[in-house]
Design goal:
The protein is of the alpha/beta class and 196 residues long. The chain has one domain (2-193): 3-Layer(aba) Sandwich (Rossmann fold), CATH 3.40.50.300. It contains nine helices and five strands. Strands 2-3-1-4-5 form a five-stranded parallel sheet, sandwiched between helices. The longest helix has 30 residues, at 75-104. The two termini are 17 Å apart.
């Protein structure tokens, strides 16, 4: 069984993924796969040609902070990044998920943009982690050292959580403590693997 885990920036989906891993469930992080894709020499060459060499550090690696700042401020740069990276990213996530599913029988894919990518059909179930907007903004500002405007740019690039939640099989509302989120993840998991 393949399960998608998603949310919006600052909603707590990555914390939910960590709890699932602690419970022994295999989790694939689309963000980690994205890091791997950005190490590919061909991808780096195409990014440099399309978006410029200023996105690279002294070692010739993609500076993810600079890339993020550029693509969230410039919709055309975001389209270019999506065109160059997302097909490879989705193929790799799908391959790793199928491999883990074959080995373990179950896998969770933690990916913020499951719906935006049209990737939801790959999963038998989708879990959405939701949280109040102000909490999401403040969490992201603190975690990523971003301004409110930068967080709002990133939010604008994602579907509203209400839209994702309406399509989800299970919604986890993350509006309390970490311990409360962990308990809700455990409860949601029981619903996913043993529906009534």
């Amino acid at each position: 069984m393949r399960i998608g885990l998603t949310g919006g920036i600052g909603s707590g989906a990555s914390e939910a993924a960590r709890r699932l891993e602690q419970m022994g469930i295999p989790v694939i992080s689309a963000d980690a796969v994205g890091h791997d894709v950005l190490l590919d020499p061909l991808v780096k060459r195409e990014l440099a040609a399309a978006l410029g060499n200023d996105l690279f550090d002294a070692a010739g690696e993609v500076d993810r902070a600079k890339l993020g700042a550029r693509v969230f401020a410039d919709p055309e740069a975001r389209r270019i990044l999506n065109r160059l990276v997302h097909p490879l990213l989705l193929d790799e996530v799908a391959a790793r998920a199928r491999e883990e599913e074959a080995r373990s029988g179950i896998v969770v894919v933690d990916a913020a943009l499951i719906y935006e990518w049209g990737f939801q059909g790959f999963f038998q179930k989708v879990i959405v982690v939701d949280a109040p907007m102000e909490q999401r903004i403040h969490r992201t500002m603190a975690r990523d050292q971003l301004t409110r405007e930068q967080v709002e740019q990133r939010l604008a690039a994602q579907w509203p959580l209400e839209k994702k939640a309406a399509r989800a099989d299970v919604v986890i509302t993350n509006d309390g403590t970490l311990e409360e989120l962990q308990r809700k993840v455990e409860e949601a998991w029981k619903v996913i693997i043993a529906p009534p």
